[in-house]
Write a structure and sequence with these properties.
about 190 residues, Alpha-Beta Plaits, 2 domains, six-stranded antiparallel sheet, 6 strands
């Protein structure tokens, strides 16, 4: 995954859908990034990432370079939109996370909202990915034990929050991956 602070700083070849070969070459040669759409694929996916609450333990301070990430492909329920999700995600869920960490200590957990900068219905979907969705919700943990203890606590005390999320959005089952961070910026 490549990340840029602003859209105007993204190399032009990455933004032009007709320049797939150039995008792949630029990614591999200039950044060392391998694309994950598969050999011979014409698909590269651009998303705008909103991460309003980074992990309280910065990546640079974590002992392991491995992480657990799960991605859910979500659609707003009828009559719902981002302005409905924002107070639940930022205020209610954010307060729950703050309380959890006050009781259990700082964690490497973070979540992010990925807004596709392409038309998902016009792209080839990978296994487990629906053909249509509004956004991707990502959860990320520093370890499996951090994931299991956080999920157990949420299952115990986060039911009302989850009910609020369920009123706003419908999401796919999580696609879970082990992630290896090869370059850990000090700011993350």
């Amino acid at each position: 995954m490549g990340a840029w602070a602003a859209l105007d700083r993204v190399p032009a070849a990455l933004l032009d859908p007709g320049q797939v070969a150039q995008r792949r070459q630029w990614l591999v040669v200039e950044t060392g990034v391998e694309t994950c759409a598969g050999d011979g694929s014409d698909e590269l996916f651009a998303v705008n990432v909103y991460q309003p609450r980074p992990a309280t333990v910065a990546m640079a301070d974590q002992e392991s370079t491995g992480r657990i990430a799960s991605y859910q492909f979500c659609t707003y329920n009828e009559g719902k939109e981002g302005s409905d999700l924002r107070p639940v995600a930022l205020d209610t869920y954010g307060a729950w996370l703050d309380d959890y960490e006050a009781k259990n200590g700082a964690t490497g957990y973070n979540w992010a909202y990925f807004a596709p900068d392409f038309d998902p219905e016009a792209s080839k979907a990978s296994d487990g990915v629906p053909n249509a969705y509004d956004f991707i919700w990502m959860n990320s943990w520093a370890s499996e034990s951090e994931e299991s203890s956080g999920m157990a606590a949420y299952a115990e005390s986060g039911q009302e929050i989850q009910a609020s999320f369920d009123e706003i959005m419908t999401c796919s089952d999580p696609l879970r991956y082990d992630v290896e961070i090869n370059i850990r910026p000090a700011a993350l």
